[in-house]
Amino acid sequence: VWPLLKRPAEWAACRAGAPLARRFRRQRLLVLAYHNIVPDGERARGDPSLHLAQREFAHQLDLLARTHDVVSIADVLLARSTGRPRAVITFDDAYRGAVTAGVAELTRRNLPATIFVAPAFVDGASFWWDVLASAGGGGLAPELRAHALHELAGRDAAVRGWAERLGRPAQSVPQHQTVASEAELAQAVASGRITLGSHTWSHANLARLGSAELELELTRPLQWLKSRFTAVVPWLSYPYGIRSPEVEQATARAGYEGGFLISGGWLPGPVSTARFALPRVNVPAGISLAGFELRISGLITR
Ligand SMILES: [Zn+2]
């Protein structure tokens, strides 16, 4: 229902406010957070907010490039003004669809992006939130999700075992919703403007781990990435966007430049403090192009 009700209002807000809002933010930077891109001709399953159609992604990129300077992740630490707002494109989870169809759209437009990889899943693994999403496409019930994240620390095997005991069998997901292979990551990097960051080793809730496990989750993926690829950037995206003061300190000790949340809006200004709790603008699948424009103009800051 909501697209019918909301879209005319969104277009009106865009026409009225977006140019002014962008002008107001011309010295600011936003980091966009994407997950999967569903290749043309294929259908999404699993958590519906994470899987964005390739055609919609392409329209978003065209819109973004018209009004923003799309820059690489290193720009997050640079205070510079180009006269237009700057945007960094990121993907969490290294879904195969993002690494192939998503990167193809970026390459076509010569745009840079960073993909955050959890190496334990590389080469065809799926994620619990996709295989446990209800067949109707509604995603996992909020109370089940909360139990999985907090009581089970977001650990993939623990969540799957618990779901099985509840009688909720895992459903299979299409290929594009599994994690890319090393070869696919290498091919994405070879396109020239794609860099790889860390999404921890196994995508657990870092705030629930003891210090030894926390350190391993942070150091292992960087070693794994650096021993295979040259285009590695020492940036972290926190699984589920969850961190604590201890997690932030451990992230700094592990040698990262900074850590990203999954939401929170635009960067506040020059990044000096709070480098380990950097906000992003999440781009859920299912928003209209006007809804996207409201987000990249700063009129919606969720
Ligand atoms: Zn993730």
Number of helices: 10
Say which molecules are bound, naming each kind only once.
Answer: zinc ion
Shape descriptor reads globular
Beta fraction: 15-25%
* Order of neighbouring strands in the sheet with most strands: 1-5-6-7-8-9-10
What is the percent of helical residues? 25-40%
Instruction: Give average pLDDT, whole number.
Output: 91
Q: What is Rg?
A: 19 Å
Commentary on this structure:
The chain has 302 residues and is α/β, with parallel strands linked by helices. It is built from ten helices and ten strands. The strands form two sheets. The protein has a seven-stranded parallel beta barrel with strand order 1-5-6-7-8-9-10, surrounded by four helices. Helix 2 (54-67) packs parallel to helix 10 (289-297). The longest helix is centred in the first third of the chain and has 23 residues, at 2-24. Bound molecules: zinc ion. Zinc ion is lined by residues 92-93, 199, 203, 239. Residues 92-93, 199, 203, 239 line the site of zinc ion.
Which descriptors would you attach to this protein?
302 residues; alpha/beta; two-stranded parallel ribbon; 16% strand; binds zinc ion
Summarize the structure.
With 302 residues, this protein is α/β, with parallel strands linked by helices.
